[in-house]
Amino acid sequence: MNRVLVIDDEPGIANLISWCLDPLGVGVVLASGLESALDVARDGNIGLVLLDFDLGDEDGMEILPRLREEPALRTVPFVAFTAHDSRRREAFAGGVVSFIARPFAGADLRTTVEMHLAR
What we know:
By secondary structure, this protein is of the alpha/beta class. The chain has one domain: Response regulator (Rossmann fold), CATH 3.40.50. The protein has helices at 11-21, 34-42, 60-69, 88-93, 106-117; strands spanning 3-7, 27-31, 46-51, 54-55, 58-59, 78-82, 98-101. The chain has a 5-stranded parallel β-sheet with strand order 2-1-3-6-7, with helices on both faces. Strands 4-5 form a two-stranded antiparallel sheet. Strand 6 (78-82), helix 4 (88-93) and strand 7 form a beta-alpha-beta unit. The chain is globular, with a radius of gyration of 13 Å. The model has no long low-confidence stretch (mean pLDDT 90).
């Protein structure tokens, strides 16, 4: 089963995303920053990454190039998942395939995840 890697420093967000994605039968795993995301990615079966920009001490856009260097994530689509709509252009320039503004609608999240996992 493909898993969705959620990189966010808010642990409760993984529960919310898991609940939203449950109808798709998708596993959700949470990482709080670069190092934990790399550990999860190396375990394999990541089909999509939801990347928050505001990770406390880290900036999602600053760690994106390092995540892309990881062999297990090179071909995995990244979706920006953040409350900072003003960074939409920067996100697409950095290589994300979609942008989900928080707060989000569960149906929008499911549609985006399903579309990119199908690739």
